[in-house]
Amino acid sequence: MHFLLSTSEEFGLCSLLTLRLRIVSGARMTLNDLAYGAKVSRLPPELAERFIQLDRDEETNTFLNSCLRRSKTSRYISAKLAQLLRVVLSRTSANGVLGRGSMFVMSSAQLSKLLGKDGVQATEGVLLDVGAGDGKVTEKFLPMFSDVVTTERSMPMVRRMKQSGNYAAVVYAEDVSECARLATEAGVELPSGGTRFDAVALLNVLDRCDKPLSLMRQLHGLVEGGSGRVIIAVVLPFRPFVEHGAERRSPIERLNMDPNASWEQSVKDLTDKLFLPTGFQVESISRVPYLAEGDLYSPVYGLDDAIFVLSVPKVISEDA
């Protein structure tokens, strides 16, 4: 689903906001049709039983309202400046320079539910967020972990996160496997002698990276077996591309996913072709709209996200 708002009216939990599907000209829906549910019967039983239903909440509305409050003039100027910068920069870096393009994936309460935390304030462990962007989405993790480390390859975004002062460490790493070392050097105390994290987040990165299989194998070695969790957000259907400066190209590693598959089929295929082959098991699945600050044409845009919480099976020694 890729929609845009067709009104600038603010709303509350029960109001109706008209949306127009970009991919189906003239089709209309209400705010209550934002996709949180799934046709669970279309999922394999082992995945269907892992589905957790989420719903739009006040925190989601707060983000939407903040987008709606921006004037058309402000959105127009910001979009035009970004367009100019994208001649020499990636979209991510252009947004970082301008301080625009904020995203919303899920609220703190929704995240707490997915992780099985006993309330939002259940603070423990160290989390690494890979490809954290401007850090706004990462902020949802702050109440749930004692320390949060972020990594990002866009230097403008790195600067924005460092300026916020919210994170135990903000590291620039060409290779994810370096993150544990860099975090330790920055003074963050990690479990397992400084080699692993309690949790890793990878939010809307998989479909924008060159080597998704290699990346998942690296993440496998960065979390604690048994207790560790990897939180994945990914737009479905899966249509990957890689930003290379101002250009876009296909990734080196391809998963051969159907770009027109249903959300449910895409969940199954991603599990079978990526998560299971790289040694993960699925703990929970949810569906949320992935919302982004808009431009002149719409105050906010959205895509259809799947949230996976994955674990690494604990290896039990034969001598144990």
TrEMBL record:
Pfam families: DREV. GO terms for molecular function: protein-L-histidine N-pros-methyltransferase activity. It comes from the Eukaryota. Gene3D superfamilies: Vaccinia Virus protein VP39. This is Methyltransferase-like protein 9. It comes from Cymbomonas tetramitiformis.
